[in-house]
């Protein structure tokens, strides 16, 4: 996996992910600096969830 993102040299800590809805599957992430998570890392998380839970996408 890629290294966790950083904001001005400080790591962005992903606290947890929860499933908010089941149809369609919707996940919400909680982190220390959510605004600083780059789009590429967001895509990585989405793809990892799709692969892990065998979701269509």
Written description of the protein model:
The protein has one helix at 39-52; strands at 6-7, 10-11, 14-22, 25-31. It is α+β, with helices and mostly antiparallel strands. The protein has one domain (6-52). The strands form 2 sheets. Strands 1-2 form a two-stranded antiparallel sheet. The chain has a two-stranded antiparallel ribbon with strand order 3-4. The two termini are 20 Å apart.
Give a quick set of tags describing it.
57 residues; alpha+beta; two-stranded antiparallel ribbon; 1 helix
| Average pLDDT over all residues | 92
Distance between the termini: 20 Å
Helical content stands at 10-25%
- Characterize the quaternary organization of these chains: single chain
Could you say how many structural domains there are in total? 1
For the biggest β-sheet, the strand order reads 1-2
Q: Runs with pLDDT <50, length 5+?
A: none
Give a quick account of the main beta sheet: strands, pairing sense, barrel closure: 2 strands, antiparallel
